[in-house]
Amino acid sequence: MKIKVIFNTNAVSNQFSTGWGLSCLINNTILFDTGENGEGLLRNIALLNIDIAAIRSVVISHEHWDHIGGLWKLLEQGSGIKVYACPGFSQGFKEKVESFKGILLESDKFSQIEENIFLTGEIAGTYKGEYLAEQALVIKTEKGLNVITGCSHPGIINILERIKQDFPQDVIYSVFGGFHLKDKDSACIQKIAEKFIELKIKRIGATHCSGQEAESLFEKLYKTNFISGEVGSEFEL
Ligand SMILES: [Zn+2]
Ligand SMILES: [Zn+2]
């Protein structure tokens, strides 16, 4: 299964739009998050020769501007696009999805959305002292489970432990996305890295809000199994 990085702070070439936030495309049909703005998102989709009409589902990890910013321009491209949200997202967000003719789907539980593609359902997180709902996406391949995260506000290890409960028989093979470690100290980052090793996770893509220190540490630890995640890059799972 192919993952294409559509939006992030760095790109493989300067022809792409970059900015804060994250967006990646799974199997050419499911967009995970939408980055901070729609112009950049649509521009990168066009530059990558991606058929936008084939994108029938958008998964929103959590309701932060850098993950939902591009959603509205995408929904303007056609009606009936499924938008997977969490029950804990704001009423304003849910109504806006419907006003843009998106099909709003929300779950607080683990669910399958396509063959071998699952959502964790809402996981409780906090941001600046307030409750924040977040979900992650899980792709099952013969190597194991592959996790894609937005910002990991509930804590990346919490998210992985929740996934392990839903898939007790499977190993987590890879994790890609934002780990939100940019404000954490070295000891905390080191502990999380040790947990990844303990969980025998084989490939890591720490990007977005993971922070420079965590990204450098994971890159050093995982070497060729580190996924850098620039716009325009892709990786196979
Ligand atoms: Zn973010
Ligand atoms: Zn966030």
Essential attributes:
seven-stranded mixed β-sheet, Metallo-beta-lactamase, Chain A, globular, alpha/beta, binds zinc ion, single chain, six-stranded mixed β-sheet, 237 residues
End-to-end distance: 5 Å
Mean pLDDT: 97
> Looking at CATH, which topology would you report?
Metallo-beta-lactamase, Chain A
**Which small molecules are bound?**
zinc ion
Helix-residue proportion: 25-40%
Main CATH class: Alpha Beta
Q: In percent, how much strand structure appears in the residues?
A: 25-35%
Order the strands across the largest sheet as they lie in space.
6-5-4-3-2-1-15
Structure description:
This protein is 27% helix and 28% strand. The chain is globular. Strand 2 and strand 3 form a beta hairpin. The strands form 3 sheets. The protein has a 7-stranded mixed sheet with strand order 6-5-4-3-2-1-15. A 6-stranded mixed sheet has the order 7-8-11-12-13-14. A two-stranded antiparallel sheet has the order 9-10. The model has no long low-confidence stretch (mean pLDDT 97). With 237 residues, the chain is of the alpha/beta class. The N and C termini lie close together (5 Å). The protein has a single domain, classed as Ribonuclease Z/Hydroxyacylglutathione hydrolase-like (Metallo-beta-lactamase, Chain A). The site of one zinc ion has 8 residues, from helix 2.
Task: Annotate the secondary structure layout.
Blueprint (H helix, E strand, L loop, with lengths): L1 E6 L15 E4 L3 E3 L5 H10 L9 E3 L5 H4 L2 H5 L6 E4 L5 H9 L3 E4 L4 E4 L2 E3 L3 E5 L2 E5 L2 E5 L2 E6 L6 H11 L5 E7 L7 H13 L4 E5 L4 H11 L11 E3 L1
Parallel strand pairs: 3-4, 4-5, 5-6, 12-13, 13-14
Antiparallel strand pairs: 1-2, 1-15, 2-3, 7-8, 8-11, 9-10, 11-12
Helix pairs in contact: 6-7
The site of one zinc ion has 8 residues, from helix 2.
